[in-house]
Amino acid sequence: MAKKSTRKKLPSKKPSVTKALAKAAKGKAAKTKPVAKQKKADAEAFDGSAKRWTAAQIDEAFRRFQAQEPEPKGELKHSNPFTLLVAVVLSAQATDAGVNKATPALFALADTPEKMVALGEDRIRDLIKTIGLFRMKAKNVALLAKKLVDEFGGEVPKTREELVTLPGAGRKTANVVLNMAFGQPTMAVDTHIFRIGNRTGLAPGKDVLAVELELEKVIPAKYMQHAHHWLILHGRYICIARKPHCDRCIIADLCQWPGKTASSVIPAKAGIQ
Ligand code: SF4
What pLDDT sits at residue 50? Predict the structure, then answer.
């Protein structure tokens, strides 16, 4: 009887990394999945059931974001905490680009709460009429400027509790101001970050507050200062709502979304080399 071999079977050869990367670079690794599968994956991700990342995966993702963009910047034009606050209030349900078209003229006339009060609601309305919901926003900007003068000595407060008392400013606005103007490690969850948190499995949550709290819990402290911007930029330009650019994504291998269309990354882009 032939003696049974005791040698362990060697694992099958992995496809060459270089080959896989070349394919991904050309978009060949990104075979588009059927629309029905994409929709199913979206629905699953948005109900917070995406598989969660490990601590090591989260650390690696932010290491790559940092390697790619060490000092990410917000895109709203501003010159001080007050103009940042106004710009963020104006950006509700509007694009940053749209807000940036209107604010230079507004801030040239009023870059402090006192000057904004003097400008008055009617003039503010005229200056921001290209922005959606401009009537309500003009009213809020005039009222918040007055409140800053009357109750905060003309200064933008540095706590969330105080910021959310200002007309037009909610929790997200407060978090953006605290992060960008005062360097606090807050996480302002907008539509992009909410999508990424659920879609990728990084921080699944039923609503924006749940995603915010989860992100604060899982992101290593050393990355919190810039995490908000990295995620917004990722959601705005790569992990977009419809047809995300998975073939250009530096966290494609970590992402748990069943609908993703690529799972390898280009090392140079991801700062892996
Ligand atoms: S692979 Fe990247 S772009 Fe695609 S869904 Fe995941 S995070 Fe978004």
Answer: 74
